[in-house]
Each structure stands twice: as structure tokens, then as C-alpha cells.
Amino acid sequence: MSKIAQKCGHLNQITEVKQAKAQECAKCLETGDSWVHLRTCQSCGVTLCCDSSPNRHASKHAHSSGHPVISSAEPNERWLWCYEDEQIARY
User: Fold this and answer.
1) Are 53 and 36 in contact (CB under 8 A)?
2) What is the signed CA dihedral for 67, 68, 74, 77, rounded to 10 degrees?
3) Which CATH number fits domain 4-90: 3.40.50.2300, 2.60.120.10, 3.40.470.10, 3.30.40.10?
């Protein structure tokens, strides 16, 4: 983890990064919507769309569920984000 992550206890709790099981937003599939980029919740493993997507399902999930940390589910991107502390860590 990066030095920034040391300021965030949520990021420091991630010992193994959950990877996306599919390259699709679980909520957008239910509604027939599209997405831009994908993020995977590090608490429950659900993959949802990012804040650049119209529905912003990943951040909505983080705030409603209390699951603060997501990882990028995009190919060749290796980072974690904590919504609560607004901190990033690269791995």
C-alpha cells in the first residue's frame, strides 16, 4: 500500500483485494442502464459502476451499506479508494 493509505484505517484492513467476477455493473444490468467504469466493493465483492457513470452505484452502495472501500475493476488499474476518508492506495 502507499504511504497515503497509512492515514486510512479502512484501506489498511485490506489484506487481499477482491477482484470483479464479471465486467458488468450488477445494478445497471437489473435496470438496463449502461456504465462507464467499474468498481468492486472490498467488503462484499459486488461490482458496480463508478461516479463517472450515470447511476453512480458504487458510491451509493458504499454510503448505504457502510462498505467504504472499493477497488478499480478496470484492466491494468491497481488501486483502492476509501469513500469515508477520501484516500487512495495503489497496490
Assistant:
1) yes
2) -140
3) 3.30.40.10
* Joined grid coordinates for residue 17: 483485494
Give the residue ranges of DSSP H helices in 1-91. Answer: 9-12, 26-31, 57-65
What CA–CA distance (Å, rounded) separates 31 from 69? Answer: 24
Give the strand pairing for 47-49 and 79-82.
unpaired
Cell of 24: 458488468
So what's the pLDDT on residue 4? 45
**39 contacts 49 by C-beta, under 8 angstroms:** yes
In tens, the pLDDT along 55-75 reads 999 999 999 999 999 999 999
Q: pTM for this structure?
A: 0.91
